[in-house]
Structures are given as C-alpha cells and as structure tokens.
Amino acid sequence: MSAEGSLSGVRVVELAxxxxxxxxxxxxxxxxxxxxxxxxxxxxxxxxGPFVDDEPxxxxxxxxxxxxxxxxxxxxDLDDTADAERFRRLVATSDVVVEGEAPGxxxxxxxxxxxxxxxxxxxxxxSVTGFGRVNPRREEQFTDLTIxxxxxxxxxxxxxxxxxxxxxxGGNQGYxxxxxxxxxxxxxxxxxxxxxxxxxxxxxxxxxxxxxxNEQSNHRWLVSRQEVERQTCRHAAPRGEPTQSxxxxxxxxxxINTGVPGRSPRxxxxxxxxxxxxxxREEFPDATLLELGAGRDHIKLAxxxxxxxxxxxxxxxxxxxxxxxxxxxxTEFFEGSQSRGVACGPIFSPEEALLNRHSVARGFPVTLHxxxxxxxITYPGAPxxxxxxxxxxxxxxxxxxEHQHLVE
Amino acid sequence: LSHxxxxxLTGQLAGAGSTRTLGPLAAEIIRxxxxxxxxxxxxxxGTPPFVDGRRGNELGGSFNQFNVEKLGVTINLRDExxxxxxxxxxxxxxxxxxxxxxxxLARLGFSYEDLRAIRPDIIYVSNCGFGHTxxxxxxxxxxxxxxxxxxxxxxxxxPGQPPAGLGFSYMDHQGxxxxxxxxxxxxxxxxxxGEGQWVDMSCVExxxxxxxxxxxxxxxxxxxxxxxxxxxxxxxxxxxxxxHNVYPAxxxxxxxxxxxxxxxxxxxxxxxxxxDWARDARLSSLAGRVSHQSELDGQMSQWTSTQDRYAVAQxxxxxxxxxxxxxxxxxxxxxxxxxxxxxxFPMAHHPVIGDVRVDGLPIxxxxxxWTIEQGAPCLGEDNARVFGGLLGLTEEELTGxxxxxxx
Lengths: 408, 407
Fold this sequence. Notes:
The structure holds 2 protein chains of 2 kinds.
Chain A: E1 11-15, H1 21-29, E2 33-38, H2 62-67, E3 71-75, H3 81-92, E4 96-99, H4 105-108, H5 113-116, E5 124-129, H6 144-150, H7 153-156, E6 157-158, H8 173-196, E7 201-205, H9 206-211, H10 216-224, E8 228-232, E9 234-238, E10 247-249, E11 255-257, H11 265-277, H12 287-295, H13 308-327, H14 330-339, E12 345-346, H15 350-355, H16 357-361, E13 366-370, E14 375-379, E15 385-386
Parallel strand pairs in A: 1-2, 1-4, 2-3, 4-5, 5-7, 6-8
Antiparallel strand pairs in A: 8-9, 10-11, 11-12, 13-14
Helix pairs in contact in A: 1-8, 11-12, 12-13
Chain B: E1 5-8, H1 12-22, E2 28-33, H2 61-66, E3 71-74, H3 80-91, E4 95-98, H4 104-107, H5 112-118, E5 123-128, H6 143-149, H7 170-193, E6 197-202, H8 203-208, H9 213-221, E7 236-237, E8 240-241, E9 244-248, E10 255-259, H10 263-273, H11 286-291, H12 293-304, H13 309-318, E11 323-325, H14 329-334, H15 337-340, E12 347-350, E13 354-357, E14 363-365, H16 383-390, H17 395-403
Parallel strand pairs in B: 1-2, 1-4, 2-3, 4-5, 5-6
Antiparallel strand pairs in B: 7-8, 9-10, 10-11, 12-13
C-alpha cells in the first residue's frame, strides 16, 4: 500500500478562519501540505472552548485542535509590509490558497488572486465568504446561526409545538456545508489543472451552499409551490400534511428513531419470532394483527387506508416497534430490529457513535500523539476509507508560529 | 471535468446527490438503472412533488432535482448479456459509483476485484450507511437513521425537550458531497500514480467527523455530551456568545436569529435597543451576559416580538451585529439577492415534466463555470447514444437486447 495520501505533493496556504477551517482540515488529512497562516497574536479561534482540562489557553483550545489537524502553522500580519512579502513568497510556491477574508480586504492589501497569480499560472484560489465576493449582501456579518437561519435549516428543524423556536443545529454545520463545497471546488480545479495546466479563482458562498442543502424545502417550492413545516425530530412536512412521530424511548432511556416499520409478510414473521425470543408475544396486544400480516401472500402499500384490515396491520407494525423499544435496552432493540431487516436507529450521542462496537471494529477512532501533553488523544477517523492513498491524521494542530521557518 | 466519465449506479439523494455535483461541472455521468423494475429502486422516481396533476415514473420532482445533467441507460444486471454490456461500460469509465446496501453489487458479479479485472485503474466508490465491513455492515439506513446513529440528531435541541434532530436528510446532502470529494481525491491520486482504488464510505462515519469539538471534550476531558444541560444548541458555547438565540418576531411563527460575538457588538446592539435594561452594567461583559442568559433572552424576546424580523436583522447588520430572519422557502428563493443574484436556481428542461427550476451550485469558477440545462434522464433515454455511440453496438444488437429485456 502506498503510504501517501491522495493530495500528497499539493501545497495549500490557508488563511485562518472560523468558517473554512474544515476545508483545510479535509485537504490536510488527505495528504496535502497545508500551511495555516494566522495573525502574530494568534487567531481568535484559539480562544474558543472547550479547553484541555478546562484551562483556557491559546494552545489548549479543542476547537483549534479539531479543525487544524495535519496542518503546519505560521504567524504573519498581512498588513505589515515585511509579512506581506513573506506571504507573497509563500503563495508563489503553492498550488492552492483557501481564504475567507471579508470581501475587499485582500484586494486593498494587494494580496489577492490577481496580484499573486503572476508567475504562478497554476495557482488555484478558493475564496469562502458568507455571500460570495460580488453579491449585494457581501458586507453582511454572519455566524453559523445566521447562515442556518437564511438557508432553511432553522425553518425546518425544531418541534411540533411551534410556540418553541426553530432549533439551531449543533456542531457548526453551516460552516461545514460551506467548507465541503470549498473542497469540492479546490479538487475540481486540481483535476482540471492536470489537463489544462492552469489554475483559477473560485468564489464560494456559504449562504448559497446552505440554500441548496435542504432536501425538500427547495423542490417542494420550485416544483409545486408548497412550504414545509418543522416537526419534532423528523423531516419537515408539507403544510397541512403532518407525518406520524418516529421518536420513542427505549427501556434504558435512550431516544430511538423507529424509522419505517415492517411492511412485508416476511418482516412480520421475523418480528413475531423476535417477540417469542424475548418472551413478549403474550404481552403485545396486537400480535394477532401481525399474524394476519404474516399470513398474507403479499402487501400492497397503496391499499393502506382502503383495506381496513391492512390499515390495522400496519398500525400494529408501528406499535410493535414502540412496544419492543420500551421493553429492551436501546442497543439490543437496534441490533435486534436491524438484524431482522427492519431499519431503525438510536439517537446516539457523539461519543456513543464514535466508540460503539461497529465503529471500533472498523478502526474508525484513531489516536494521535500529543507531544505537548505527553499522551495519545482519540479523534474521529476517516470520512471515507481509501484503500491505496489512505486518509491520515499526520500531526496535531500547530502551535502559534510553530513552523515559522517556512516563511523566514 | 469534461474528460471524466462516471458509471453511476447511485440512487436516492445520498448517492445521486454525489454525482449531481459533478455533472454540472462537465463530468459525463452515465446513470445505470434497472429496466425490470423500471428504476423504482430509487423511490424518488415517481413520488411527489409533481408539477401538475400528472403522475408517473418520469414525473417525480425530486428525482428531476437530483439527477440533472446525467445521461440515463438501463441494464439488467441479473442477465448474463446485461453483465457483459455493463463490463463494456466499466472498461470505458474512470469511476464506478454506487450506494446499494453492502454486498449487493458484489453479488451481481461486480466486486472491486471484478471491476479491477475489467479495468485495472478503475476507481470504485461505494457509500452505504455503515460501510462494507464491521458488525453493522448489513444494516439499513437512510438520512434520518444515519443522523441518529452519527450523533448529529443528538446535538440539536433545547433543554427539557427531546432531540430536535435535523428537519431533513442533511447527511444525504453532506454524505453525497463528501462522496464527491472521495471521487475527486481518488482521481487526483490516479492522475499522479496511475493507480485506481476502492473507496469504502460509511455515511455514519462521515457524519461523526462533523460532530467536531464536542467529541474531543469527551476524549480529552472525559466530559460526555449525554448530560443534563446538553445540548442547548440555540445558545453557543464553542465559541461562547451571548446573546445568541432564535427570537420571536411580529407575526405567526416568525423568528429572527441574533448572534453577538463580543462586547463591542453588545454595545452596538444595546444602542440599537435603546432601553434601560440593555445598559445594565451586569450585561456589559460576556461573562455577565452568559450568567444572566435566560433573563437576557427574555428581554431580547420582548424587544424583538413586536418588530418585523427583516427590520430587526437590517438594524443590527447596520451596526455590524450578525442577525438574520428565519426565512421561508418563498422568501429564500424568490426575494433574496443572496440566492437570486448568485443565479442559484437555474431552469432545467425535462422531456416529460417540462421546464422546472432546480438547485444550482454555490460555487463560481473562473476557469469554466458550472452549467445546468438538462433535467433528469427518462428511463433508458440515452441507451442508443451510450450503447451505440460509446460502446459501438449496432442498431440490430440494440433491438435484440431491448426485445429480450436486457436493456
């Protein structure tokens, strides 16, 4: 197996931001040499918690640690003449620049794509901003929350009770949406450069990205002029057409998404066998309906609501999932249901997702040695497993100015 | 990407969304569907929304949305002649993509080893919920299940309520886009080394990589996210901000999001509010605003609840404070220069549905931008073009294959 990542040999200069940090991380973990440039006093995100042992310090931010794995770090003040020259020389040796500066700033410093492409015609420049470089809204301030407010995610997420506010997602997903598009753009430009030999400028709008990441809100409107409404922990539904709850609680107090219940005679047979195996068939009041379902030759979903017996069978198929979940621990319910071909999923916390037996068996959690702490730290692993050019965390996030020799 | 050809077995949004990003960037996407089941494995083919009263397998509005700029062919992979035809297509392709349940394509005779025997430098990218190995490899998923199992549903909610989750299949979009990154990364590796490979993507694992710093708080500090006061995702602890919430505005179910990042922004916000409570010295520092957050939220809600949400956002933006109306689809699509001036919703032509606007791309490239003109392909629409033009089959051979249900 080749030890090198897919982007090995590609040099990327990244100007530190909150909103494009994941883009640099994805490229660094894929093997690119990503040189993170931050102000000499340190980028503000070094002050974002949580912190190692809850001790606030610029080298102990877990936000910084997470988003800057596998990168090298230098400190430059771009409005300082000597540092600006160092930045120019660095870009001259690079393949890709990823930056998220406010529109107009780099132009005013004469450090923009048009200033730095001369002599480096292969240069690829990816600008990641709230609304794009030339949009009428380009001056607007934004955070992850306001991006998701403008992009349908908040409108679609929350609770059946609309006196409760729409809910912001955890974990900086607005920034992740923009960052993933920035990587698609950068890699597209690299593949294109393999043929054309020339680089290009790419303008990424995080607001536009959020506005094409909402599944049905857009096409319900574009196709049939319908609005959708938020519901508790399930898909928003077209106005006036609410769907049934898919949320229930397991015997050990974990929320479960009951998914789509059994819908074939074979599913019903397997669920009845499961009820027998856990000794609960007598206690489930509608076992007879499941037996009727299991005895049918086939089931036509279109007849639900028309054929009264089938309608009751399908109700029992939903009820049996809620019943079994209420009697079994979440993991036993999940594995029992899925191994019988009926999809469902516990609402795992991030740590339960990272460390369950499946993730561990696949080798998904990885450890990275932190020389600064003298211990190994567990991180989430590869977003996809590449058999020949493996994803890898090559180093911990850089200390302030740790690789300053690269610009001296 | 006009020199790249993808033999595409994906479907639904989780898979189709992936090649959907690359078609408008000029890659040739040849979507392969099953003629026996008329492509119904992809449930979006004939399901709502519809443009008018017509119903049918070519009329699904979301299928059209997720399959623009793709060619469509049909091959029955259960038939020996179908498998031969598919092998010919693989030989002419750079990439094979699929998002079947683990093991399905291998059982049809096209494992990675089989594909590599046909074309040694082939790139094979599979995407399923739990990946192709491990104890949960056979488990079934779609967006909401992936989101439940990767921690993202858990991270969204307000105290005292069940998880709010994500109101649509976010991980179908993000999973598809991350799958597109896998395709591009593998192409870059192949261009440099001549080597193809298999990329095994688990959408759940891709989702866990989006849980971010909250996960390190557990692995480094031992603090689980499963705890009483968590999540509280309308507030912000990483980075710490206050006020930071979704506040009621005038009108039914109307809301405005406000995020105040530092003391300077609070001072500017307090000037806009121009009421005594906002000048309370306890609120002048971030620490003070965080420790009095529920009181602060109450005052903010009273202030916003009588105002138009766009007016609030505009007033706060004017003094540099991040704020945005929670927008409906109509507002986002029809009235917002952030999407309109971008050209975000181009018109695509579908031979049966007609002209419908669809999602564009949130990137603009100076060296050849994306284009979307063609809607989704009808079932087998490009059989003659691909099997005849690309693979060199004669009209007679095509007629025979059609008559025998192979295509």
